[in-house]
């Protein structure tokens, strides 16, 4: 696998800290309002990357933070006459409703900033001990000049930033680029006790503390929108590496903007649609297909015309899945030789997406597959049962499990007669354990063979954080 790394500005072969394990942190929402469809692009792209890594037999620990203390939250809460906690909890609940609606797989952990204050205080204290942070009247700042590699992610130089920086005037700072680690308490704001007096954390320190607590001092992948490269991610690197002396993240992945008429979609500009509004008109599968047809790092223009086109495109995949189910239900098969080898499409799909998560190319292969299988079905030859099962397995693994652009649960029903057979269930569990043992021994060829052969029998495996489950269809 090859990933474009924002840190090095080039594509690099993907190597994990631990074999076949990925520690991935994604910057989540500031929960002051419903998130818009531009935010949804980052969440969905991160979801697809996580799903693809799992498809490639990685065990992924996926963490997305929830920023539940922030100026925007405080201002909205004060406007509504409620506490910041009450306001943020309301929109955390709404966030989960929307990501579920978008068929985004739940993260392993959603740390809330307010639950990690202790870790933040410890991190800030360590920076102060190392003389890279300073306290002025209860406000603690990071001294950018003390971190020699500042700017290595964004490519910005301190000298240039100092000349043209658009930063708020603050006479307490030694340098206008220095950023707040701890903010002195103000009337009407939530506050916590600290060695520097009551106050609250700065935004940047939150992610560093939560990432290191949940995933360790060095992680495999840190991801987020392009707008977070500077200053947020740059500051995360500075404060984390200054504290630990370790590399903060090995690979940085950034998602391109979703634009309206070539202008970034944002709440400040007022040119946005919430994800919830779009979900009222279009299915999650349509939205996901629309977003995945452009490379994750490239800008994408939003339009209802494109969503309409992707609705029709998603129907083509769904229709083939239904057709395959109908053929399998008839249980009439033959020995005619098909003109296509489905295993080749698995190879093409993997080769495409292995190159920096090239989902657009992977989707192109899925549509080639749909066209070629439909052509094969039109011949009305009686093909072996294995052909139809493997065709269904390809769509199940790629279109559903990786991309989420078709939902097999809406197309098929479990076979209760087979499911009730405990002896068959025990045999399946035995094979699942053998597959796990093969993976642990890095025998991925055998692991994949067990999964594919089970699928050929109509037994589909699903790897989850709690282990492997199966569905008989």
Helix-residue proportion: 40-55%
The termini sit apart by 32 Å
- Name of the CATH superfamily of the largest domain: HUPs
Number of domains: 2
Roughly what is the average pLDDT, rounded to an integer? 92
Number of helices: 16
CATH architecture identity of the largest domain: 3-Layer(aba) Sandwich
How many strand elements?
15
The value of Rg in angstroms is 25 Å
Biggest sheet strand order reads 4-3-9-10
Could you please describe the fold and organization of this structure?
- By secondary structure, the protein is α/β, with parallel strands linked by helices.
- The chain has two domains: 2-280, Rossmann fold; 310-472, no CATH class.
- Helices cover 47% and strands 15% of the residues.
- The strands form five sheets. A four-stranded parallel beta sheet has the order 4-3-9-10, sandwiched between helices.
- The radius of gyration is 25 Å and the shape is elongated.
Give the structure's gist in a few sentences.
The chain has helices at residues 37-55, 71-80, 84-101, 117-129, 158-164, 203-215, 229-244, 275-279, 284-292, 304-330, 342-354, 359-378, 385-402, 416-419, 422-440, 444-456; strands at 2-5, 10-13, 21-26, 59-64, 133-136, 139-142, 179-184, 199-201, 219-225, 249-255, 258-260, 263-264, 300-301, 459-464, 467-472. Helix content is 47%, strand content 15%. It is of the alpha/beta class.
Fill in the keyword field for this structure.
16 helices, 15 strands, alpha/beta, Rossmann fold, 2 domains, elongated, 473 residues, 4-stranded antiparallel β-sheet, 4-stranded parallel β-sheet
